[in-house]
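ok, trying the design again with the full structure, not the truncated one.
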C-alpha cells in the first residue's frame, strides 16, 4: 500500500489535534505494511456529503495521487458508503477510512478464538450499513420499474446472512463472557481470610502495558514495539501480603477515534475494566502527546462507565527521557495529572516497588470501603 493521508480540522478539532491524529494514522498504515507518501489537511466545519472534503480538494487529491503514484487514499475519519464510492470514482484508486485500517490490524493480531470472534463481529457491524444503497446500483443490471433487480436481491440476501452471523457471534461471546465471570469468581475465592484486589491495566496502545504486566507479576506476556501487539486479556496474580493478593489484568490498547464497532465487540474483554477495584492507566511520557493520550483513554473509560473508578496514573518509559533511576525521581510529570501518579520505567524495572506500594495503599482503602 502506497498511501496519501487526508484529514480535516475546524470547529470542534484544532489543527494541532488533527496533525497528531494524522501522525497516528501514519502508524496505522505502517502497521499493515503500507507506506505513507504524505498528508493533506483541510479546514472544514462540516464534512462534505459527497466527498467528505470539498470537491476542489478531492480533485487536488486526485492530482497528488497521480503525481506520487499512490494506490490508496486513507481518510482519518469514518466515511459513508456514498462518500467512498464518489471518491473512488473521482480519484481512481482505493479509498479507506480509519476504521478500515484499525479493523485490518485487529484482524492480523487476533490469535485466540475470542479475539477472532470479536474482530469478525466488528467487521460485520462495519459492513452492514455500507450495504445500504448498493442494491439499487447493482439493480441497474436488470429488472424494470417496480421490480427487484438481481443486485438488490443479492444485497438483501447478504444483509440477512450478516445479521444471522452477528446474532450467532454475539451468542458465542455471551457464553465466553459467562465463562469468564465463573473464572473470575474462582480466582477471587482465594484462601481463607485472603483479600483479593482486582487491578485492570489500561492505556494507549504501545504505552507499555504488557511490559508493565511482566514487571509486576514476573509472568511472560507478549511484548512488541507496535500498535495493538496483543488483543487478548491476560490475568496474573501477585501476593503482596499474607492476606492480600492482587489480580492484574492486561487489556487491549486504545487509540484516538476508536471505532465504536470495536468498543461494542470487545465489551466481553473490556468488562474486566468495569469489574476492577483499581485502574492502572499506563502512559508513555516519552511521547510529546502524552497528555492528549490520557484524555483519549479517559473518554473510552467514560464510554465503558468506568470513569468513577480509582485511577493510578503509571507514567512509563522514563528511561527514554533520563539515564538513571535517580534522575527519574526528579522528573516533574506527576504534577501534570490529577490524583495518584507514579513515574516508572517498566522496561528497566525502575519504580516498580514504589508502584506496588501505591497500589496497596489505594487498594486497601477501597477494600475497607467495601467491608
Amino acid at each position: 500500500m502506497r498511501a496519501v493521508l487526508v484529514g480535516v480540522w475546524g470547529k470542534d478539532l484544532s489543527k494541532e489535534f488533527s496533525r497528531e491524529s494524522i501522525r497516528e494514522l501514519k502508524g496505522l498504515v505502517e502497521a499493515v505494511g503500507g507506506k505513507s507518501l504524505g498528508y493533506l489537511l483541510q479546514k472544514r466545519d462540516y464534512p462534505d456529503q459527497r466527498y467528505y472534503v470539498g470537491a476542489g480538494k478531492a480533485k487536488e487529491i486526485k492530482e497528488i495521487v497521480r503525481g506520487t503514484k499512490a494506490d490508496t487514499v486513507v481518510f482519518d475519519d469514518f466515511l459513508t458508503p456514498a462518500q467512498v464510492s464518489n471518491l473512488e470514482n473521482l480519484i481512481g484508486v482505493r479509498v479507506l477510512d480509519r476504521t478500515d485500517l484499525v479493523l485490518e490490524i485487529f484482524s492480523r493480531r487476533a490469535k485466540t478464538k475470542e479475539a477472532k470472534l470479536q474482530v469478525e463481529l466488528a467487521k460485520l457491524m462495519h459492513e452492514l450499513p455500507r450495504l445500504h444503497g448498493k442494491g439499487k446500483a447493482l439493480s441497474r443490471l436488470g429488472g424494470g420499474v417496480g421490480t427487484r433487480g438481481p443486485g438488490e436481491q443479492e444485497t438483501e440476501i447478504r444483509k440477512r446472512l450478516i445479521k444471522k452471523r452477528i446474532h450467532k457471534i454475539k451468542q458465542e461471546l455471551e457464553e465466553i463472557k459467562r465463562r469468564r465471570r465463573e473464572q473470575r469468581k474462582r480466582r477471587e475465592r482465594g484462601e481463607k481470610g485472603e483479600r483479593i484486589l482486582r487491578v485492570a491495566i489500561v492505556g494507549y496502545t504501545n504505552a507499555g502495558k504488557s511490559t508493565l504486566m511482566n514487571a509486576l507479576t514476573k509472568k511472560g506476556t507478549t511484548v512488541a514495539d507496535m500498535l495493538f501487539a496483543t488483543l487478548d486479556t491476560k490475568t496474573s496474580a501477585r501476593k503482596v501480603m499474607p492476606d492480600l493478593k492482587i489480580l492484574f489484568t492486561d487489556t487491549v490498547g486504545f487509540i484516538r477515534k476508536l471505532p465504536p464497532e470495536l468498543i461494542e465487540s470487545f465489551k466481553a474483554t473490556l468488562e474486566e475494566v468495569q469489574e476492577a477495584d483499581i485502574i492502572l492507566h499506563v502512559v508513555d511520557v516519552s511521547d510529546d502527546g502524552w497528555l492528549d493520550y490520557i484524555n483519549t483513554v479517559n473518554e473510552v473509560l467514560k464510554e465503558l462507565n468506568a470513569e468513577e473508578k480509582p485511577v493510578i496514573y503509571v507514567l512509563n518509559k522514563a528511561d527514554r527521557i533520563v539515564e538513571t533511576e535517580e534522575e527519574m525521581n526528579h522528573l516533574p510529570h506527576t504534577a501534570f495529572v490529577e490524583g495518584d501518579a507514579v513515574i516508572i520505567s517498566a522496561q528497566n524495572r525502575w519504580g516498580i516497588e514504589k508502584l506496588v506500594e501505591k497500589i496497596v495503599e489505594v487498594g486497601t482503602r477501597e477494600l475497607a470501603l467495601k467491608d
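Keeping the full-length input from now on. The radius of gyration is 23 Å.
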